[in-house]
Write a structure and sequence with these properties.
Shape: elongated
Radius of gyration: 28 Å
Structural class: alpha/beta
Helix content: 40-55%
Strand order of the largest sheet: 7-19-10-6-9-8
Distance between the termini: 48 Å
Number of strands: 19
Number of helices: 20
Strand content: 15-25%
Protein backbone atom coordinates (compact mmCIF):
# COMPACT_ATOMS: atom_id res chain seq x y z
CA UNK A 1 0.00 0.00 0.00
CA UNK A 2 1.34 3.42 -0.95
CA UNK A 3 1.95 5.82 1.95
CA UNK A 4 0.93 9.49 1.65
CA UNK A 5 1.84 12.31 4.04
CA UNK A 6 -0.53 15.31 3.97
CA UNK A 7 0.25 18.43 6.00
CA UNK A 8 -2.42 21.16 6.29
CA UNK A 9 -3.48 23.26 9.28
CA UNK A 10 -7.13 22.77 8.17
CA UNK A 11 -6.79 19.00 7.84
CA UNK A 12 -10.33 18.40 9.19
CA UNK A 13 -11.72 19.95 6.00
CA UNK A 14 -9.80 17.39 3.97
CA UNK A 15 -11.42 14.27 5.48
CA UNK A 16 -13.51 13.61 2.31
CA UNK A 17 -10.26 13.55 0.29
CA UNK A 18 -8.62 11.19 2.78
CA UNK A 19 -11.62 8.83 2.72
CA UNK A 20 -11.57 8.92 -1.11
CA UNK A 21 -7.86 8.04 -1.18
CA UNK A 22 -8.33 5.25 1.39
CA UNK A 23 -11.00 3.74 -0.84
CA UNK A 24 -8.52 3.88 -3.74
CA UNK A 25 -6.02 1.86 -1.72
CA UNK A 26 -3.74 4.60 -0.33
CA UNK A 27 -2.79 5.04 3.34
CA UNK A 28 -2.87 8.72 4.34
CA UNK A 29 -1.06 10.16 7.36
CA UNK A 30 -2.60 13.59 8.11
CA UNK A 31 -0.79 16.25 10.19
CA UNK A 32 -1.61 19.85 11.05
CA UNK A 33 1.81 21.55 10.96
CA UNK A 34 5.11 21.64 9.18
CA UNK A 35 6.97 20.43 12.27
CA UNK A 36 4.68 17.41 12.56
CA UNK A 37 5.34 16.63 8.89
CA UNK A 38 9.10 16.78 9.46
CA UNK A 39 8.82 14.47 12.49
CA UNK A 40 6.77 11.94 10.53
CA UNK A 41 9.28 11.93 7.66
CA UNK A 42 12.03 11.12 10.14
CA UNK A 43 10.04 8.21 11.55
CA UNK A 44 8.33 6.69 8.50
CA UNK A 45 8.77 5.93 4.84
CA UNK A 46 6.37 7.83 2.57
CA UNK A 47 5.92 7.58 -1.18
CA UNK A 48 4.76 11.19 -1.61
CA UNK A 49 3.99 14.26 0.52
CA UNK A 50 1.41 17.04 0.07
CA UNK A 51 2.25 20.33 1.80
CA UNK A 52 0.00 23.32 2.34
CA UNK A 53 2.06 26.39 1.54
CA UNK A 54 0.40 28.65 4.18
CA UNK A 55 0.61 27.00 7.61
CA UNK A 56 1.17 28.71 10.98
CA UNK A 57 4.64 28.18 12.41
CA UNK A 58 6.80 26.64 9.72
CA UNK A 59 5.60 27.63 6.25
CA UNK A 60 5.30 25.13 3.43
CA UNK A 61 8.58 26.32 1.90
CA UNK A 62 10.44 26.01 5.22
CA UNK A 63 8.96 22.56 5.76
CA UNK A 64 9.92 21.56 2.24
CA UNK A 65 13.55 22.52 2.86
CA UNK A 66 13.78 20.39 6.02
CA UNK A 67 12.02 17.41 4.41
CA UNK A 68 14.39 17.49 1.44
CA UNK A 69 17.34 17.53 3.84
CA UNK A 70 16.02 14.31 5.42
CA UNK A 71 14.64 12.55 2.30
CA UNK A 72 15.96 14.22 -0.87
CA UNK A 73 14.26 11.60 -3.07
CA UNK A 74 10.74 12.06 -1.61
CA UNK A 75 8.40 13.73 -4.14
CA UNK A 76 6.72 16.75 -2.52
CA UNK A 77 3.64 18.46 -3.97
CA UNK A 78 2.96 22.03 -2.82
CA UNK A 79 -0.69 23.09 -2.41
CA UNK A 80 -1.20 26.84 -2.37
CA UNK A 81 -3.82 29.56 -2.68
CA UNK A 82 -1.27 31.88 -4.24
CA UNK A 83 -0.09 31.92 -7.85
CA UNK A 84 2.71 34.43 -7.20
CA UNK A 85 5.61 33.84 -9.58
CA UNK A 86 8.24 34.40 -6.89
CA UNK A 87 6.66 31.80 -4.63
CA UNK A 88 6.62 29.22 -7.39
CA UNK A 89 10.23 29.95 -8.30
CA UNK A 90 11.28 29.37 -4.69
CA UNK A 91 9.36 26.11 -4.52
CA UNK A 92 10.73 24.87 -7.82
CA UNK A 93 14.23 25.89 -6.72
CA UNK A 94 13.80 23.62 -3.71
CA UNK A 95 12.82 20.77 -6.01
CA UNK A 96 9.10 20.32 -5.57
CA UNK A 97 7.70 17.54 -7.70
CA UNK A 98 4.54 19.50 -8.54
CA UNK A 99 2.15 22.14 -7.24
CA UNK A 100 -1.64 22.47 -7.09
CA UNK A 101 -3.76 25.61 -6.70
CA UNK A 102 -6.59 25.56 -4.15
CA UNK A 103 -9.33 24.53 -4.28
CA UNK A 104 -8.17 21.10 -5.44
CA UNK A 105 -10.48 18.27 -6.41
CA UNK A 106 -10.04 14.50 -5.91
CA UNK A 107 -9.32 13.92 -9.60
CA UNK A 108 -6.37 16.34 -9.46
CA UNK A 109 -4.96 14.51 -6.46
CA UNK A 110 -5.36 11.13 -8.17
CA UNK A 111 -3.68 12.38 -11.36
CA UNK A 112 -0.84 13.75 -9.28
CA UNK A 113 -0.34 10.35 -7.63
CA UNK A 114 -0.34 8.58 -10.98
CA UNK A 115 2.18 11.07 -12.32
CA UNK A 116 4.66 10.80 -9.47
CA UNK A 117 4.39 7.39 -7.83
CA UNK A 118 2.75 5.26 -10.54
CA UNK A 119 4.62 6.73 -13.48
CA UNK A 120 6.94 3.75 -14.02
CA UNK A 121 4.11 1.22 -13.72
CA UNK A 122 1.95 3.15 -16.19
CA UNK A 123 4.89 3.71 -18.52
CA UNK A 124 5.74 0.00 -18.42
CA UNK A 125 2.15 -1.01 -19.12
CA UNK A 126 1.68 1.43 -21.99
CA UNK A 127 5.10 0.70 -23.53
CA UNK A 128 4.50 -3.04 -23.36
CA UNK A 129 1.11 -2.61 -24.99
CA UNK A 130 2.51 -0.45 -27.79
CA UNK A 131 5.41 -2.83 -28.45
CA UNK A 132 3.08 -5.85 -28.55
CA UNK A 133 0.89 -4.04 -31.07
CA UNK A 134 3.90 -3.27 -33.27
CA UNK A 135 5.67 -6.61 -32.84
CA UNK A 136 4.21 -8.23 -35.96
CA UNK A 137 4.95 -5.19 -38.12
CA UNK A 138 8.58 -5.21 -36.96
CA UNK A 139 8.87 -8.93 -37.68
CA UNK A 140 7.52 -8.35 -41.18
CA UNK A 141 9.97 -5.48 -41.79
CA UNK A 142 12.88 -7.70 -40.75
CA UNK A 143 11.74 -10.60 -42.94
CA UNK A 144 11.11 -8.42 -45.99
CA UNK A 145 14.04 -5.98 -45.74
CA UNK A 146 16.10 -6.14 -48.94
CA UNK A 147 17.54 -2.63 -49.40
CA UNK A 148 19.85 -0.38 -47.43
CA UNK A 149 17.05 2.06 -46.59
CA UNK A 150 14.86 -0.77 -45.29
CA UNK A 151 17.60 -1.99 -42.96
CA UNK A 152 18.12 1.57 -41.74
CA UNK A 153 14.40 1.69 -40.93
CA UNK A 154 14.64 -1.64 -39.05
CA UNK A 155 17.66 -0.38 -37.08
CA UNK A 156 15.93 2.86 -36.15
CA UNK A 157 12.76 1.10 -35.00
CA UNK A 158 14.63 -1.48 -32.93
CA UNK A 159 16.72 1.30 -31.37
CA UNK A 160 13.57 3.26 -30.53
CA UNK A 161 12.09 0.29 -28.68
CA UNK A 162 15.40 -0.53 -27.01
CA UNK A 163 15.52 2.99 -25.58
CA UNK A 164 11.86 2.95 -24.49
CA UNK A 165 11.79 -0.53 -22.95
CA UNK A 166 15.04 0.13 -21.08
CA UNK A 167 13.25 2.89 -19.16
CA UNK A 168 10.59 0.47 -17.85
CA UNK A 169 10.38 -2.69 -15.76
CA UNK A 170 9.40 -4.56 -18.88
CA UNK A 171 9.87 -8.24 -19.50
CA UNK A 172 9.64 -7.48 -23.20
CA UNK A 173 13.35 -6.75 -23.52
CA UNK A 174 14.12 -10.44 -24.02
CA UNK A 175 11.64 -10.57 -26.91
CA UNK A 176 13.19 -7.43 -28.39
CA UNK A 177 16.65 -9.03 -28.15
CA UNK A 178 15.34 -11.98 -30.16
CA UNK A 179 14.17 -9.55 -32.85
CA UNK A 180 17.59 -7.88 -32.74
CA UNK A 181 19.23 -11.25 -33.44
CA UNK A 182 16.84 -11.95 -36.31
CA UNK A 183 17.60 -8.52 -37.76
CA UNK A 184 21.36 -9.12 -37.41
CA UNK A 185 21.07 -12.43 -39.27
CA UNK A 186 19.16 -10.74 -42.09
CA UNK A 187 21.65 -7.85 -42.17
CA UNK A 188 24.60 -10.26 -42.34
CA UNK A 189 23.10 -11.96 -45.38
CA UNK A 190 22.35 -8.60 -46.98
CA UNK A 191 25.89 -7.22 -46.52
CA UNK A 192 27.72 -10.41 -47.51
CA UNK A 193 25.56 -10.65 -50.63
CA UNK A 194 25.88 -7.02 -51.76
CA UNK A 195 29.04 -5.45 -50.28
CA UNK A 196 31.36 -6.36 -53.15
CA UNK A 197 28.72 -5.33 -55.69
CA UNK A 198 28.67 -1.79 -54.26
CA UNK A 199 32.18 -1.23 -55.66
CA UNK A 200 31.44 -2.25 -59.21
CA UNK A 201 31.34 0.52 -61.79
CA UNK A 202 28.10 2.53 -61.82
CA UNK A 203 26.62 0.39 -59.01
CA UNK A 204 24.16 1.99 -56.61
CA UNK A 205 25.41 1.98 -53.07
CA UNK A 206 24.56 3.69 -49.79
CA UNK A 207 26.48 6.71 -48.59
CA UNK A 208 29.78 5.38 -47.26
CA UNK A 209 32.78 6.72 -45.36
CA UNK A 210 34.52 8.41 -48.34
CA UNK A 211 31.27 10.29 -49.17
CA UNK A 212 30.75 12.05 -45.83
CA UNK A 213 32.66 15.28 -46.46
CA UNK A 214 31.52 15.57 -50.07
CA UNK A 215 27.82 14.99 -49.37
CA UNK A 216 27.27 16.41 -45.88
CA UNK A 217 29.88 19.18 -45.51
CA UNK A 218 30.76 20.64 -48.92
CA UNK A 219 27.13 21.57 -49.79
CA UNK A 220 26.85 23.57 -46.55
CA UNK A 221 30.09 25.41 -47.35
CA UNK A 222 28.75 26.12 -50.85
CA UNK A 223 25.73 27.80 -49.22
CA UNK A 224 28.06 30.07 -47.29
CA UNK A 225 27.50 28.37 -43.93
CA UNK A 226 30.20 28.12 -41.29
CA UNK A 227 30.66 24.45 -40.43
CA UNK A 228 32.13 22.57 -37.49
CA UNK A 229 32.54 18.81 -38.05
CA UNK A 230 32.81 16.73 -34.86
CA UNK A 231 33.78 13.07 -35.35
CA UNK A 232 33.19 11.03 -32.19
CA UNK A 233 35.10 7.77 -32.47
CA UNK A 234 33.11 4.56 -31.78
CA UNK A 235 29.76 6.39 -31.60
CA UNK A 236 26.72 4.17 -32.12
CA UNK A 237 23.31 5.28 -33.37
CA UNK A 238 21.67 4.48 -30.02
CA UNK A 239 24.27 6.61 -28.22
CA UNK A 240 23.43 9.49 -30.53
CA UNK A 241 19.71 9.13 -29.70
CA UNK A 242 20.62 9.17 -26.00
CA UNK A 243 22.58 12.44 -26.18
CA UNK A 244 20.23 14.10 -28.68
CA UNK A 245 17.97 15.63 -25.96
CA UNK A 246 21.05 17.08 -24.26
CA UNK A 247 22.27 18.67 -27.50
CA UNK A 248 18.70 19.86 -28.14
CA UNK A 249 19.31 22.68 -25.67
CA UNK A 250 21.96 24.09 -28.03
CA UNK A 251 21.06 22.95 -31.55
CA UNK A 252 18.11 22.13 -33.77
CA UNK A 253 18.45 18.96 -35.82
CA UNK A 254 18.28 19.93 -39.48
CA UNK A 255 19.01 16.53 -41.02
CA UNK A 256 19.58 13.09 -39.50
CA UNK A 257 21.01 10.39 -41.73
CA UNK A 258 22.39 6.91 -41.17
CA UNK A 259 25.33 6.12 -43.41
CA UNK A 260 27.44 3.01 -43.95
CA UNK A 261 30.89 2.55 -42.46
CA UNK A 262 33.23 0.77 -44.84
CA UNK A 263 34.78 -2.54 -43.91
CA UNK A 264 36.76 -3.03 -41.79
CA UNK A 265 34.73 -0.92 -39.34
CA UNK A 266 37.96 0.22 -37.74
CA UNK A 267 39.52 3.63 -37.24
CA UNK A 268 42.51 3.03 -39.51
CA UNK A 269 40.24 2.38 -42.49
CA UNK A 270 36.95 4.18 -41.92
CA UNK A 271 38.19 7.46 -40.43
CA UNK A 272 41.03 7.90 -42.91
CA UNK A 273 38.45 7.30 -45.66
CA UNK A 274 36.27 10.10 -44.26
CA UNK A 275 39.03 12.69 -44.30
CA UNK A 276 40.60 11.64 -47.59
CA UNK A 277 37.31 11.13 -49.41
CA UNK A 278 38.93 7.96 -50.76
CA UNK A 279 38.94 4.24 -50.10
CA UNK A 280 42.01 2.95 -48.21
CA UNK A 281 43.61 1.43 -51.32
CA UNK A 282 43.33 4.77 -53.12
CA UNK A 283 44.97 6.52 -50.17
CA UNK A 284 47.81 4.02 -50.21
CA UNK A 285 48.35 4.45 -53.96
CA UNK A 286 47.94 8.24 -54.17
CA UNK A 287 49.50 9.22 -50.84
CA UNK A 288 51.85 6.41 -49.75
CA UNK A 289 53.45 8.66 -47.15
CA UNK A 290 50.07 9.17 -45.44
CA UNK A 291 49.00 5.52 -45.26
CA UNK A 292 50.22 3.20 -42.50
CA UNK A 293 49.95 -0.55 -43.08
CA UNK A 294 48.56 -3.00 -40.52
CA UNK A 295 51.98 -4.42 -39.63
CA UNK A 296 53.59 -1.03 -38.98
CA UNK A 297 53.88 0.08 -35.36
CA UNK A 298 53.22 3.80 -35.74
CA UNK A 299 49.76 5.29 -35.15
CA UNK A 300 47.28 4.62 -37.92
CA UNK A 301 45.49 7.99 -37.74
CA UNK A 302 48.24 10.54 -37.47
CA UNK A 303 47.71 12.06 -40.92
CA UNK A 304 44.04 13.06 -40.86
CA UNK A 305 44.77 16.77 -41.23
CA UNK A 306 46.97 16.15 -44.27
CA UNK A 307 44.36 13.82 -45.81
CA UNK A 308 41.67 16.49 -45.40
CA UNK A 309 43.96 19.06 -47.01
CA UNK A 310 44.45 16.72 -49.97
CA UNK A 311 40.67 16.30 -50.31
CA UNK A 312 40.10 20.07 -50.41
CA UNK A 313 42.86 20.49 -52.99
CA UNK A 314 41.50 17.74 -55.24
CA UNK A 315 38.12 19.46 -55.29
CA UNK A 316 39.78 22.86 -55.77
CA UNK A 317 38.24 24.23 -52.60
CA UNK A 318 39.82 27.34 -51.15
CA UNK A 319 38.42 27.13 -47.61
CA UNK A 320 40.88 27.40 -44.74
CA UNK A 321 40.24 24.99 -41.91
CA UNK A 322 41.25 24.07 -38.37
CA UNK A 323 41.78 20.55 -37.07
CA UNK A 324 41.72 19.37 -33.43
CA UNK A 325 42.19 15.93 -31.92
CA UNK A 326 40.64 15.82 -28.46
CA UNK A 327 41.96 13.04 -26.23
CA UNK A 328 41.97 14.77 -22.84
CA UNK A 329 39.58 17.00 -20.88
CA UNK A 330 42.23 19.63 -20.16
CA UNK A 331 42.99 20.03 -23.86
CA UNK A 332 39.27 20.28 -24.66
CA UNK A 333 38.89 23.12 -22.14
CA UNK A 334 41.97 24.82 -23.56
CA UNK A 335 40.76 24.84 -27.16
CA UNK A 336 37.26 25.90 -26.03
CA UNK A 337 38.84 29.06 -24.70
CA UNK A 338 40.65 29.59 -28.01
CA UNK A 339 37.47 29.38 -30.11
CA UNK A 340 36.27 32.87 -29.19
CA UNK A 341 37.84 34.53 -32.20
CA UNK A 342 37.32 31.66 -34.61
CA UNK A 343 36.56 32.76 -38.18
CA UNK A 344 37.56 29.83 -40.41
CA UNK A 345 34.65 28.47 -42.48
CA UNK A 346 35.56 24.80 -41.92
CA UNK A 347 36.63 23.27 -38.64
CA UNK A 348 37.10 19.65 -37.63
CA UNK A 349 37.45 17.97 -34.23
CA UNK A 350 38.03 14.27 -33.56
CA UNK A 351 36.88 13.17 -30.09
CA UNK A 352 38.22 9.89 -28.72
CA UNK A 353 36.39 9.52 -25.38
CA UNK A 354 33.80 6.92 -26.41
CA UNK A 355 36.55 4.78 -27.92
CA UNK A 356 38.49 5.01 -24.65
CA UNK A 357 35.33 4.09 -22.74
CA UNK A 358 34.92 0.98 -24.88
CA UNK A 359 38.54 -0.12 -24.34
CA UNK A 360 38.50 0.64 -20.61
CA UNK A 361 35.40 -1.53 -20.23
CA UNK A 362 37.37 -4.42 -21.76
CA UNK A 363 40.37 -3.95 -19.46
CA UNK A 364 38.64 -2.99 -16.20
CA UNK A 365 36.44 -5.30 -14.12
CA UNK A 366 34.97 -2.27 -12.35
CA UNK A 367 33.98 -0.68 -15.67
CA UNK A 368 32.29 -3.92 -16.71
CA UNK A 369 30.24 -3.85 -13.54
CA UNK A 370 29.34 -0.18 -14.04
CA UNK A 371 28.42 -0.84 -17.65
CA UNK A 372 27.01 -4.40 -17.89
CA UNK A 373 24.91 -3.96 -21.03
CA UNK A 374 23.97 -1.61 -23.87
CA UNK A 375 21.52 0.36 -21.73
CA UNK A 376 24.16 1.10 -19.09
CA UNK A 377 26.68 1.84 -21.85
CA UNK A 378 24.31 4.49 -23.22
CA UNK A 379 23.63 5.99 -19.79
CA UNK A 380 27.34 6.21 -19.04
CA UNK A 381 27.94 7.91 -22.39
CA UNK A 382 25.14 10.41 -21.77
CA UNK A 383 26.31 11.13 -18.21
CA UNK A 384 29.84 11.79 -19.42
CA UNK A 385 28.62 13.87 -22.34
CA UNK A 386 26.41 16.16 -20.24
CA UNK A 387 29.12 16.91 -17.69
CA UNK A 388 32.22 16.80 -19.87
CA UNK A 389 34.24 19.68 -21.32
CA UNK A 390 32.97 18.53 -24.73
CA UNK A 391 29.53 19.92 -23.88
CA UNK A 392 31.11 23.31 -23.15
CA UNK A 393 33.05 23.00 -26.41
CA UNK A 394 29.82 22.40 -28.37
CA UNK A 395 28.06 25.21 -26.52
CA UNK A 396 30.80 27.59 -27.67
CA UNK A 397 30.36 26.33 -31.25
CA UNK A 398 26.63 27.14 -31.00
CA UNK A 399 27.36 30.60 -29.58
CA UNK A 400 29.65 31.32 -32.52
CA UNK A 401 26.83 30.44 -34.94
CA UNK A 402 28.49 27.40 -36.54
CA UNK A 403 26.53 24.61 -38.15
CA UNK A 404 27.41 21.36 -36.38
CA UNK A 405 27.92 18.14 -38.34
CA UNK A 406 28.13 15.35 -35.76
CA UNK A 407 29.18 11.92 -36.92
CA UNK A 408 31.49 8.98 -36.31
CA UNK A 409 33.76 6.63 -38.22
CA UNK A 410 32.15 3.38 -37.00
CA UNK A 411 30.12 1.90 -34.18
CA UNK A 412 30.76 -1.01 -31.86
CA UNK A 413 29.00 -4.21 -30.83
CA UNK A 414 28.92 -6.37 -27.70
CA UNK A 415 30.49 -9.72 -28.60
CA UNK A 416 29.58 -13.07 -27.06
CA UNK A 417 30.66 -15.98 -29.28
CA UNK A 418 34.36 -16.89 -29.79
CA UNK A 419 35.33 -18.29 -33.19
CA UNK A 420 38.66 -20.06 -33.80
CA UNK A 421 40.92 -18.69 -36.52
CA UNK A 422 44.40 -19.68 -37.71
CA UNK A 423 46.77 -17.26 -39.42
CA UNK A 424 50.48 -16.56 -39.80
CA UNK A 425 52.48 -14.45 -37.36
CA UNK A 426 51.86 -11.25 -39.34
CA UNK A 427 48.07 -11.45 -39.00
CA UNK A 428 46.63 -8.36 -37.29
CA UNK A 429 45.28 -8.41 -33.72
CA UNK A 430 41.73 -7.02 -34.17
CA UNK A 431 39.07 -9.37 -32.79
CA UNK A 432 36.39 -8.66 -35.41
CA UNK A 433 38.43 -8.90 -38.60
CA UNK A 434 41.69 -10.46 -39.75
CA UNK A 435 43.89 -9.65 -42.72
CA UNK A 436 46.70 -11.97 -43.77
CA UNK A 437 47.75 -15.05 -45.74
CA UNK A 438 46.25 -18.52 -45.45
CA UNK A 439 43.56 -17.54 -42.96
CA UNK A 440 41.49 -20.50 -41.80
CA UNK A 441 38.44 -20.34 -39.55
CA UNK A 442 35.72 -22.62 -38.27
CA UNK A 443 33.21 -19.79 -38.16
CA UNK A 444 30.08 -20.52 -40.20
CA UNK A 445 28.96 -16.89 -40.39
CA UNK A 446 32.22 -15.18 -41.33
CA UNK A 447 32.61 -13.12 -44.50
CA UNK A 448 35.80 -13.43 -46.54
CA UNK A 449 37.02 -10.96 -49.15
CA UNK A 450 39.58 -12.79 -51.28
CA UNK A 451 40.12 -9.92 -53.74
CA UNK A 452 40.53 -6.91 -51.44
CA UNK A 453 41.60 -4.55 -54.25
CA UNK A 454 38.13 -4.83 -55.79
CA UNK A 455 36.55 -3.29 -52.67
CA UNK A 456 39.20 -0.62 -52.17
CA UNK A 457 41.31 -2.36 -49.53
CA UNK A 458 45.13 -2.59 -49.52
CA UNK A 459 46.86 -5.94 -49.10
CA UNK A 460 50.11 -6.50 -47.19
CA UNK A 461 50.86 -9.40 -49.57
CA UNK A 462 49.64 -10.58 -52.95
CA UNK A 463 47.78 -13.53 -51.40
CA UNK A 464 46.32 -11.66 -48.43
CA UNK A 465 42.60 -11.75 -47.76
CA UNK A 466 40.24 -10.21 -45.21
CA UNK A 467 37.91 -12.23 -42.96
CA UNK A 468 35.16 -10.53 -40.96
CA UNK A 469 33.09 -11.62 -37.99
CA UNK A 470 29.36 -10.96 -38.09
CA UNK A 471 26.71 -10.61 -35.41
CA UNK A 472 28.15 -11.17 -31.92
CA UNK A 473 31.11 -13.36 -32.93
CA UNK A 474 34.78 -12.57 -32.28
CA UNK A 475 38.01 -14.26 -33.31
CA UNK A 476 40.37 -16.12 -30.98
CA UNK A 477 43.42 -18.23 -31.77
CA UNK A 478 43.59 -21.92 -30.78
CA UNK A 479 46.48 -21.21 -28.41
CA UNK A 480 44.97 -20.24 -25.04
CA UNK A 481 41.56 -20.22 -26.73
CA UNK A 482 39.54 -20.60 -23.53
CA UNK A 483 41.43 -17.80 -21.77
CA UNK A 484 40.92 -15.28 -24.56
CA UNK A 485 37.34 -16.42 -25.12
CA UNK A 486 36.56 -15.74 -21.47
CA UNK A 487 38.49 -12.46 -21.34
CA UNK A 488 36.87 -10.86 -24.40
CA UNK A 489 33.37 -12.30 -24.14
CA UNK A 490 30.81 -9.57 -23.32
CA UNK A 491 33.14 -6.72 -24.40
CA UNK A 492 32.42 -4.02 -26.98
CA UNK A 493 34.45 -4.51 -30.17
CA UNK A 494 34.47 -3.17 -33.72
CA UNK A 495 35.88 -4.05 -37.12
CA UNK A 496 33.27 -6.50 -38.34
CA UNK A 497 29.74 -6.66 -39.72
CA UNK A 498 26.79 -5.70 -37.54
CA UNK A 499 24.11 -3.05 -37.58
CA UNK A 500 25.64 -1.23 -34.62
CA UNK A 501 29.07 -1.11 -36.31
CA UNK A 502 27.99 -0.22 -39.85
CA UNK A 503 24.75 1.82 -39.54
CA UNK A 504 26.05 5.00 -37.96
CA UNK A 505 24.76 8.56 -37.43
CA UNK A 506 25.47 11.60 -39.57
CA UNK A 507 23.58 14.57 -38.14
CA UNK A 508 23.51 18.20 -39.27
CA UNK A 509 22.39 20.76 -36.69
CA UNK A 510 21.91 24.51 -36.61
CA UNK A 511 22.52 26.56 -33.45
CA UNK A 512 19.56 27.90 -31.53
CA UNK A 513 19.41 31.64 -31.09
Amino acid sequence: MYQILWADDEIELLKPYIIYLNEKGYAVTAVKSGQDAIDRVRENRFDIAFLDEQMPGLSGLETLEDIKAIRPELPVVMITKSEEENLMEQAIGQQIADYLIKPVNPTQILMCLKKHIHRREILTEQTNKSYREEFSDIAYLIDSASTWDEFVMVHKILTKWDLQLAETDSGMLSILRDQHQQAEQAFRKFVTRHYEDWFRKDAERPMMSPDVMKRAVFPALDRGEKVFVVVVDNFRYDQWKTVQPILGELFTVQDEQVYCSILPTATQYARNAIFAGLMPLQIQEMFPDLWVDEDEEEGKNLNEKELLQSLLERYRRKETFTYYKINESDFCEKITGQLKGLKTPLNVAVVNFVDMLSHSRTDSKMMKELCPDESAYRRLTAGWFEHSPLYGFLRRIAELGYKLVLTTDHGTTRVQNPVQIIGDRNTNTNLRYKVGKSLSTQGKNTFEITRPQEVGLPTPNVSSSYVFCTGQDFFAYPNNFNYYAQFYRDTFQHGGISMDEMLIPLVSMTPKA
